[in-house]
Amino acid sequence: MSGPAVGLWLFEPCGFADILADVVPWLETFCEPVEAKASGDADFWVRDGSTLGLQAFDPAGVGVFFLSEDEEMPAEDEDYSAFSRPPVQGLIAGAGCSGPVNHVLLGHLTLALARRLDALVDFDGLLSGHRTAGDDTSDEAVLARARALASDLPGRLAEVSYDTGGGGRWFRHVGDVEFLEAWLQHPDFHLIK
Fold it and tell me: Are 102 and 11 in contact (CB under 8 A)?
């Protein structure tokens, strides 16, 4: 079973090999092994979360993480008008397994990468707080819950609309490091799987 994934939006062009040349030595300080694949992607296992600002974590259920280039970024169907300019490149950071520890590790890893690369974080969907079984799941209710959560946290969180096919549009959240830092401390923190 695969876990959550997030995007990192870059606004200055940089070759993916150059990004890996910068990031891999840093990853090797707290991950092992860091494996470069023929595709250029990197797989790694987090062994020490202290570099990410985490205390000890239970390694049970922690899977492999990966970093790859998002070859579909920028996307023609996304509305980047919330930004002074559109992103020029994207990366994907993901976890091979789901579960709370993988969400937290990926969240902190993404925060560190976003700071290191001066990137925004694409959450690949709308974030919302805890949902209960009786909650309204209509598009309007989901969007209202997402907007309420976004207004409660510091930092910047933008809605980016995209084409869902058949003429429909929906939204994804893209946030800055200040927002992600606050979201990581929220009791309902999760990433989108």
Answer: no
12-47 pLDDT per residue, tens: 999 999 999 999 999 999 998 899 887 789 999 998
Share of the chain above pLDDT 70, in %: 97
Rounded-to-5 percentages of helix, strand, coil across the chain? 30, 25, 45
Torsion of Cα atoms, 144 then 147 then 153 then 154, to 10°: -160
Three-class SS state of 79: coil
pTM of the model: 0.92
Residue 186 — φ and ψ, nearest 5°?
-75, 140
CA distances to 82, 89, 179, 188 from 37, in Å: 35, 20, 32, 34
Distance CA 149, CA 46 (A): 30
